[in-house]
Amino acid sequence: MGSPAKRSKKSPVATKLFVLDTNVLMHDPTSLFRFDEHDIFLPMMTLEELDNNKKGMSEVSRNARQASRFLDQMVSGTEGTLDQGIPLAEPSQGGATGNLFLQTAPLAPTTPAHLPLGKADNLILSVVAALREQHPGRQVILVSKDINMRIKSRALGIAAEDYTNDKVLEDTDLLYTGFQELPADFWDAHSKGMSSWQEGGRTFYKLSGPLCKSLMVNEFLFGGGQEDFSAIVREQTGKTVVLETLKDYTHQKNNVWGITARNREQNFALNLLMDPNIDFVTLLGQAGTGKTLMTLAAGLAMTLEKKLYTEIIVTRVTVPVGEDIGFLPGTEEEKMTPWMGALEDNLDVLNQSDQEAGEWGRAATRDLIRARIKVKSLNFMRGRTFLNKFVIIDEAQNLTSKQMKTLITRAGPGTKIICLGNIAQIDTPYLTEGSSGLTYVVDRFKGWAHSGHVTLQRGERSRLADYAAETL
């Protein structure tokens, strides 16, 4: 068996030996290079399960094939036996300095007799137990994404951990909300040397002070001892920021396709959606906070009234993610229709807002709107480029970070992408709030001059829906 070399007592860092379960490699093939100075051990059963999962077009199958390619490159590059381990420094480009060990000989099963050995999980557990006996002075830890596997291993007294390298945040309460309330003494502490001017109907303030360092570009601010003050950070350099006052979308005269903001966060969201300089918007929020309705209203206003975009493209994850939409007769749009009930509901609301048009006028408007809205499946997004399109990605919390990257990189010149979702409602079995693609983009895009984010907090659907959300 590939025997992970015991470290000398002079070794400054006691390195650990991590045994990887198959699901870690199928979740993230680059996990092989993510363990810094520690060693990695792959049981034969892990390789066997990789082989069993390599067929198919799903994300998991792709990852299994990629993990096998990485292993092939490393194994074929070594001379002699694998007993001494394969150094990871070169394939990881200096990211990892430990060694990779493969199981090259059978290990005596040392697991309790009541654990049946026919199961792959139990065979991996027996390998971990045997390794622990071979290296009594060293920490041997199983890494698995499978919760039951971790429970089993702890029941047997074996250390087990989740693979958390790709988690954006440990605690989603720390996720950037896109706005913050200013302290009551904000203006007193920051007004020294302040300058203000007007431009295009908006007021700008340039100020500096201790709080300015922590502000992000395109972050919304409110309060500061003034009830009706709300602004957006336009520039931030060191301790100096430029604030711009917002357009008030709560007022009927500024309605967007008949829709007005009903609360402060909705006003923030409409300021982002209606700003042509912002190319990427993320809106998080519970059911009924108005994400889809505001986005569609803004899309229609900017496509049909302002003519900034040529059409609206709506896509959403059809969970199970990436599965085929079927070979039954029907176009891509017809097959996506069942998934787009939410879109239809919101279009009905937007149509009702025009009271003066009458039945005929509303029917004509509906046909005009339908002609400008295209419903697309995620499966056919690779290789496309969207020019001057208003792209809405609904239910984005079900996307992995890789799928999110695939979608956002479709944007050509003049395209605006809006991601909507609720990270508390993830339907995909392999994603958590911390590793969802939506959490990932919110965290990575914060502070970029052409992106904005708002977490909507108040439901505006109905008193029944709000009460149900609170009490059930």
Automatic annotation (TrEMBL):
<dbReference type="InterPro" id="IPR027417">
    <property type="entry name" value="P-loop_NTPase"/>
</dbReference>
<dbReference type="Pfam" id="PF02562">
    <property type="entry name" value="PhoH"/>
</dbReference>
<dbReference type="InterPro" id="IPR002716">
    <property type="entry name" value="PIN_dom"/>
</dbReference>
<keyword id="KW-0547">Nucleotide-binding</keyword>
<feature type="domain" description="PIN">
    <location>
        <begin position="16"/>
        <end position="151"/>
    </location>
</feature>
<dbReference type="GO" id="GO:0005524">
    <property type="term" value="F:ATP binding"/>
</dbReference>
<dbReference type="Pfam" id="PF13638">
    <property type="entry name" value="PIN_4"/>
</dbReference>
<comment type="similarity">
    <text>Belongs to the PhoH family.</text>
</comment>
<dbReference type="InterPro" id="IPR029060">
    <property type="entry name" value="PIN-like_dom_sf"/>
</dbReference>
<comment type="similarity">
    <text>In the N-terminal section; belongs to the PINc/VapC protein family.</text>
</comment>
<keyword id="KW-0067">ATP-binding</keyword>
<dbReference type="InterPro" id="IPR003714">
    <property type="entry name" value="PhoH"/>
</dbReference>
<dbReference type="GO" id="GO:0005829">
    <property type="term" value="C:cytosol"/>
</dbReference>
<dbReference type="InterPro" id="IPR051451">
    <property type="entry name" value="PhoH2-like"/>
</dbReference>
<protein>
    <submittedName>
        <fullName>PhoH family protein</fullName>
    </submittedName>
</protein>
